[in-house]
């Protein structure tokens, strides 16, 4: 009889099952190993992220999707003897994979902000006999200066603002993180650190839970947008695929530093849709759709800036996210983040 497929073993050479708690949140409900062993094992062996902790309705800790874990580890390029700093211990599974790669001459420090999660990572690493991993309960924004410098920084929570601390603790090496603008979910970026700056291009899509102190404001505080007026967004607006169709949210987010958004849906068959935009307490909304006159409410400059970003993207041949990259330099607690197009010397946007 053939063994059932286990994505973590196949892709990463180590089973994630022993790192998972007896209760997993899958497809909107908790399943337990004791109550439904088959469903629990199917989730544990799948190539999907599994949520291991919820804070109310929001997932607050998980074991990431094995395919994404592999993409990040490949980008991290860890070698025997390396000293690695991980941010976001979670279950301890990726710390174990890092320990496998650094071997007995290397070391792994993993920093987890949640005390319960840190404790379970410690237990899991002990129970599976993984050596050379130090689990520290602290805010990963500060890194872990006392154990540095590091050859690699591997980050498993989504970052909107990279701290300077990671650059100061990894002087010549690599920082791999899921990074996203305020507007959208993330992409993996692998930054080469040298001469006080970190530079790299955006890679795979990777949707992670955002670093706890960097979550954006709840949208239920959305104010009344005020009067809705027809708006002209330039002669070629109608020719665009529509403000939400056919483009990568990530790329538009790169062109709109600090802007967050939500939409009323993405089904083009449904008459009017509304795109809501926010930056620094300024709000705007754009209503659009097939056969509907485009209208806007709220901050006109924000609407125009959004339209300019969409047009810029079209005028440059609708580049994919891999056409863009990030340069990070130390600058107080939060590093200075500069997104560029083409090359580090190309057009750029400060985030
Ligand atoms: C996707 S999970 C980590 C997955 C983990 N590497 C694994 O193998 O299971 C993200 C983790 O980042 C942690 N986290 C969030 N903000 C953090 C912060 N400021 N410092 C350290 N850890 C943080 C969360 O508590 C959560 O456990």
Molecular structure report:
This protein has 351 residues and is α+β, with helices and mostly antiparallel strands. It has 2 domains: 66-214 and 322-350, Vaccinia Virus protein VP39 (Rossmann fold), CATH 3.40.50.150; 220-315, no CATH class. It is built from 8 helices and 19 strands. The protein has helices spanning 7-12, 37-45, 66-76, 93-102, 115-127, 164-169, 249-255, 300-315, and strands spanning 23-26, 29-32, 50-55, 58-63, 83-87, 107-112, 133-137, 152-155, 173-179, 186-194, 197-206, 229-230, 260-263, 273-279, 282-288, 295-298, 324-329, 336-341, 348-350. The strands form 4 sheets. A 10-stranded mixed beta sheet has the order 7-6-5-8-9-10-11-17-18-19, sandwiched between helices. The chain has a 5-stranded antiparallel beta sheet with strand order 12-16-15-14-13, with helices on one face. A two-stranded antiparallel ribbon has the order 1-2. A hairpin with a 6-residue loop joins strand 18 (336-341) and strand 19 (348-350). The site of S-adenosylmethionine has 26 residues, from strand 4, helix 4 and strand 6.
